[in-house]
Amino acid sequence: MSDTTNLAMPYIEAAQAQKHVTHNEALRILDAIMMLCVLDRDLAAPPASPADGDRYLVASAATDEWYGHDGKIVAWQDGAWIFHKPQEGWRLWIADEECLLIFNGASWTGASTQDASYLGVNTTADDTNRFAVASNAILLNHAGSSVQVKLNRNGDSDNAGILVQSGYSGRAEIGCFGNDDFIFKTSPDGSVFDIGLTLVSAANGVPRIPGFAVAGLPDPAIAGAGALVLVQDASGGPVIAFSDGAVWRRCTDRAEVR
Prior knowledge:
Elements: H1 19-33, E1 37-38, E2 55-57, E3 73-77, E4 80-84, E5 91-94, E6 99-103, E7 108-110, E8 119-121, E9 131-133, E10 159-166, E11 169-177, E12 182-186, E13 194-200, E14 206-208, E15 211-212, H2 220-223, E16 228-231, E17 239-243, E18 248-250
């Protein structure tokens, strides 16, 4: 056996002359493929002025000195291009893209995230937020036609919602909470949430607005013109009222609620 099995490094033979030549060749191989990082994976032809030690992943349809070495690691060492055939499980960092690839035995693929315990993109995931992203925007694109985002809760008595925060303190939340109704609610402090609208599942999704006693009606000026409430103890029975920006008025006859 003249070479090692995995990295194809030459052995020093018994009674070999100029052992340093074989030893140095093995060192060059280690220098090229250990802690593997290449400058680029998009080049199909050698760069004009490589620096000693520069490494690349040869792109498909390679030409010139790289012809016939598609998918291999190539290193510029001692004035020549040296090629290394990858083995299954090799990991490769692409410097210009800042991404990690793994060789699966046939091709280079992205590092696997299947069944990963945590995934943090530009931030750190934790036991509560096992998938965390720090970004100015997030795009979930279609794969040819429609696209859908799912929140799957364990059962009807559990919660599934989208929470909007300010400084990690909740300000608004929508979703199903403890039943099948779809609820819109807000909070001034992240502690107490008030329901602004409920789509009642058992009644074919009809909307239900919040109800108040006359004495507990919110300030109509703060609620703003066009806000709606159910006044539960209005004279003559419960009635829907709207704010005109100054007072609450009954929707039936526009009389001020008192």
